[in-house]
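The data are set out underneath:

___
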Amino acid sequence: MINPFIALQLLASMAEDRIAEFKANEKGATAVEYALIVGAVAAVIVTAMVAFKGKLEGLFNSINVGGSGSTTAP
């Protein structure tokens, strides 16, 4: 029969090993960092689009579609 004290020591030792392995694993941290970077880039793009809204509308309205300058499909 196993002594309960020894069983608790073994359980604590195994838990410490698992926690150390979990702390050493950085895959999740890297994914979160990339997600934060993508979110920041998206926020910058949206902010720039809002700031330059009038100029962007003018730019896209001045683009001719087709050779005749018509915007309707043939």
